[in-house]
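Hi Y.,

Following your request, here is the sequence exactly as I used it, all 359 residues.
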Amino acid sequence: MNTELLQRLGAAVAPSGAEHDVAALIGEEIAPLCDSISYDKLGNLIAVISPKRGEPRSRIMLTAHMDEVGFLVKSIENDGRVRISLLGDISTDTLTGRRVVFDSGAVGVVVTKPIHLMSGRERETTADRDGLYIELGNTSREETEDIVSLGDYGTFEPKFTRLRGGYVAGKALGGRACVTLLIDMIRTIREKGYDETMSDELYFVFTVKREIARTYYGADAAAFALMPDRAIVLDAAPSADFQGVPRERRGAHAGGGIQIAPADMKTIYDRSMFADAVECCEKYGIPYQYPPTADGPATEAQTIHKIGAGIPTLFLGLATRNLRSGAEIINERDADAIGDLLLHLVKKERNGYQQCLFN
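Below is the corresponding structure, written out as tokens. Let me know if you'd prefer a different format.
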């Protein structure tokens, strides 16, 4: 995985509904490499690579969301403080004391009631969302309105950190790593000439608004417009692989390879695609893992697989610790494993040894 690109993508301020900055970065990377790129009415970025020889046998949609959790300015107090509404499933415990950045470039700190003023019950519960505000250092509404406006978006301040053992930490890394993998795949297909022998038309869809209320309507609209024959969804897979956490609640194991899910709480994934992915991992020595339970969180697949007459769908998960926080943690080896599997699933070797696995 191109970690330099991941760092740049992770630094973009792009919460749900304000994905334009990260979309622009993605477009700059892939425009010279694709047969076409376009935006739909919701803002999804769709890139196409077609086979160089012959008519496409089928259409495959590969998707990763480019938005992230964040907040929206809902009011500005007379003393200059900013009140916010959260976008996405963010624990307020991960926000308190965090540095945040607005799409205007302003930087602030999320603050709540001081702990020494909290009641015993307040100390034992998660901070109230309505009690959060952002401190900018201003003392009046007028000062704040010079740099922040109602409706402005914001998110955690970017801070990309390399850890030991191939781990990296930063905001939005789970989703943006999946975006990076699709960009890497586009580049590899072109540079290695896989488009000369592949038999499927590939639609790379970078979706919007995934984090808002878990409705996934960005992916829904894209799948409806494209009506692919098959879809592959890349996304973060929650990881709480710590001692003391029951096995069925640990989620994906960071460093354990791709999570290939047969089912989750909203989707039973296509059995043929699931079996092909597992077979491919076994054949090429790609590390993979199953989720510890079928009661895992839903993905964009829950809406994609129901579009039209139905779209067979596969989910490939990237184990992500501290999900939806300012310091998500992933392992580069897990990301590389996903990249390897994707290429094996869509390419057709010149010597005829490997056909596309999705027959």
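The radius of gyration is 21 Å.

Thanks again,
Q.
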